[in-house]
Amino acid sequence: MPRWRQLRDAKLTEYENAADGWTMVSNRADAARIRTEQEMAGPLRATQKGEAQTSAERDLTRLSRNYQYIYGECGLVRTTLSALASELSGAQKKLKQALDDAAGLKFTVNEDGSVEYPRSTELPMAPGTSLGSGVAKPGAPVPYLPGAGEANGDPDKGKAEDIAERISQAVNSAVEIDNRYARILRELKAPDGLAVTDDMLVDEARDMGDVQKAVGPHLDKGGIPHGKSPADNRKWWDGLAQEQREEYATLYPAEIGALDGLPSVVRDSANRIVLDEAQAQVKHDLAALGPDPPRTILDAGGRTHSNPEWNIWNAKGGTRFQNQLKGMAAVESRFDQTGVDGLPPAYLLGFDLKGNGHVVLANGDPDTADNTAVYVPGTKSKLAGAGGDIGRMMRVWKEASSMSVGQSTSTITWIGYDAPQSIAPEAMEKHWAYEGAPRLDNFLDGLQTAQGGPDASHTTVIGHSYGSTTVGAASKAPGHFAADDIVVAGSPGMLVGDASDLDVGRKHVWSEAAGDDAVPLGGKIAHLGGYKWGVQTWDGIPYDAGPIQTVPSDEAFGAHRMHVDTSGHSGYWDEGSDSLKNQAAVVVGRYDKVREDN
């Protein structure tokens, strides 16, 4: 059958129906992954112990990983088929228009795509010509213009050449489209077996890149909002058809997972694809470097020297890969603790390996939470150390939930900015806070957008160490800071001189500082506090007056100074401590439960 007939008669609805089928498989796999984790693995951890529990949990973890892979890979097949049908539809439409034009002129389209037309009887005949028909083929030297054609000026020749060229272009376009998508569809397959391997996830990432390149006209990455407000992001998302949302989420998961304002369940599903593929790729890259060499070696005299082999291994990314894997393992460990001691499901609201790595992880769905807490860690926070920060918010969740029976609480670890990685000189510089502030503001606005407005949830921002400086930079900036309360612990300063300078107001600023925590004093040395005219006091006794620098633990700052029964710079989240209970009381709005120092 001639190619133009194949294109004309192609039933593209068959591709669309197939895409719908793959959509159903993809969506069911994502739903099954959620059920496996929340309705099966969670209760199992909460009620069972011993070897049987360990074995069952291992099987459920593998099942969940399989569903996650099916969700992403079937989503790619779905998008590829949809794009194939869309692009072929365009070529088919152009062909049919050319065929309709030929029929209207009573031209005949031959098997080879050439167009036969009747010679005009109204024009003088050139020597050597006769009445009858002519045949036009694609590739005419000049495009059709009125009056163009043979030397005798026959306009039908130009029209026929134009139609033949359009038929040829439509068919050639369809052939190119078919070849391009056939290659991709051949690659979108998985080996037999019950286990999803790291190699399969690395291959899935390559597949994703290939599909992205192929479907540009159908699903343009440029259509995803960039640099817009969370409200604009949500408006864009809500304006998409459901099938478009599903295609974007599985084809561009990193971009969708990073969009503040989108539903948390959408960001979580997208970011889990990013996490799985990133973890598999980093494992592959680390394995390619070979075994980890000793960092030091001994010479013949027994002296210790740096090992050149380790230096080469490290320069190629060895330590960086190990740190990245450590952070990703901490995130997965939190996934695996759902149900333990009543912990709710975890939602991955942000993840990337840029710089020192970023992760945003919620305990419980913040979109539906009555109370929300966002924790901003300080100096040296990064993906590699996420485990400790995640653990702190797990403890805040447990304490807050025990104080608010009948209410839901979500606590979020927000490693969403580039924190200073050294006490000196980085933590003595303000630019980290000012650069991180817009990101924090966007995230909080996004939470509020997803929740349905400023009154949907009571929101508390908790800043530790330099994280409180970032909170200060965000809260003192012009505009609305989307939070009801601010809690700071071990703060070196918030870049303002008085609690009333922060957007939430003096009555909603709370401070904790252990007696042996040197960071507040260090913050003054670095000038991270703010200045005001006033009087500095200690237990009510004045000791300085005039233009004074204050940090939140100073009486002159004006914050609620909460009782602290822990020591050091990192003890504020010790289980069972008043320091932890005070934070939890603020998070759930039980201000009467907060113990303050006089």
From TrEMBL:
Residues 354-519 form the DUF1023 domain. Pfam families: Abhydrolase_8. This is DUF1023 domain-containing protein. It comes from Streptomyces malaysiense. The lineage of its organism: Bacteria, Bacillati, Actinomycetota, Actinomycetes, Kitasatosporales.
